């Protein structure tokens, strides 16, 4: 394998190899700076993206080493009506809402530490054999838009996103019409040999036929005892807590992990709980060893799904298919916001041409613009002036310390960084902010020259128990918009999307403890490590369909997010009364004079509407200041 890996360890700019591997000495910022200015186009870079080299070093020096950066005596830029620290969806939405609600002529500066806007809403592009491919490297989908707040619904409409159109864009029959089902891959590292088989597990893409489960499991490299135990579990129809009151049932299920519940009430062997454990990682950032049996019940997991809890937790909200997805995920939302703020930067005026429009990055930070988006700029200090009427923001750009000033400031970055930037945050608020921790993850996009192996094997999605890296990967969502068409034939290129959430399962750690340890693990992994393990998993699972790494893989982009999902409260290890409307995050997001906080952390909700709702609250606070 080692000799094969070099084919995809390349950084590309507009399809031209730059010859600098992600593990080399130049960061993407330096690579782009060395390229012709008109060629600055971050979405086309492959290799290590997400929290890319050049985006985090200043923040680490500030937070880890306590380094202080000298504040320039004089401003290096003018005074703005609003300075926003953070150019993700929350920051961009705040800029849009401030202009809409407070002052349509406002001068606004948005600072972001990455080489691209959008924050975790990251766009990845590839050119494979002349075909233009688009993938998402972070924030994924406009999930359940009919349940959004009035403010979030209105913002989507105002920036030109009509969610009902996704019913036409998203081909819900793509996989079923081509007999591409769900598979499960048992690796030789975890199970002694490589086995790809049909999935017998419930999951995001449906449930297996109960009558076929025994036959499916014949190929699984587990003991006969484990096979019989799982068949018994999946076929159970009794409430194992029958006779107990609702309160007793909820207390029992909330008080132990789903893994422990299966072991105690169903005598499930470890082989079975190991097979099930990692199926939820992509949603919660941990496995079933750190999530409650009650969460298992909410997720319709076997065994607990038959427990009668009456109307407990009943949600009468609209149930919608998971289809509201741009080809670049919620980068489409970020691009729609930038188009409204800076029309010249994102040509066009429809949802369809939003997908294929090429952003003109040269126009994001022009001196005459009312809105300026300044990339590659890491804030290092945020402080009110002595008279409390203005806010100074000091930041580092290309190694130089600069200072601007705003009549108002919205902090839309990572909440845990704020106490390191702003000495004015009260100690009680610092304590509240530090309650949570981000969920680390990596989204790995692999461009293939064709998907013949998937057609041959009859799978479109593969889950991986006890993974060495990715816990799942699949052909990307089948979305066609305007002139951008999703692949239709196996001989055409396609993007595979893989998810890796580093955890420390079955070690007695809470979810937060696993997030902290997993973040450390992710930081210590090189791009070469990530690439090699991802390709090993592809080779092990797809070789039966004729897959060949050297021939079939065109490029890889690893979107590494050590500070990924916003923390959502976990009823196994957090106060069960905590949720989006109650918890430490409420105190953590408190306004500090002319500084307001807007990010998904402040909503304790890792979804695009959490980011938008936080922006609306922050803008309203500053409107009244």
Distance between the termini: 60 Å
Low-confidence stretches: 1-26, 31-36
Computed Rg: 24 Å
> What is the CATH C-level name of the domain at 58-119 and 359-435 and 570-623?
Alpha Beta
How large is the count of helical segments? 24
Mean pLDDT: 93
Beta-strand percent range: 15-25%
- Count of strand segments: 19
- The strands making up the biggest β-sheet line up spatially as 3-18-14-17-16-15-8-9
User: Largest beta sheet, briefly?
Assistant: 8 strands, mixed
Classified in CATH, the superfamily of the domain at 58-119 and 359-435 and 570-623 is FAD/NAD(P)-binding domain
> What is the helical fraction, as a range of percent?
25-40%
The appropriate CATH architecture of the domain at 58-119 and 359-435 and 570-623 is 3-Layer(bba) Sandwich
Structural write-up:
The protein has 625 residues and is of the alpha/beta class. It has a domain at 58-119 and 359-435 and 570-623: FAD/NAD(P)-binding domain (3-Layer(bba) Sandwich), CATH 3.50.50. The protein contains 24 helices and 19 strands. The chain has an eight-stranded mixed beta sheet with strand order 3-18-14-17-16-15-8-9. Strands 4, 5, 10, 11, 12, 13 and 19 form a seven-stranded mixed beta sheet that branches. Helix 3 (89-101) links the parallel strand 4 and strand 5 (108-111). Helix 3 (89-101) packs parallel to helix 15 (331-341) and helix 3 runs parallel beside helix 24 (608-623).
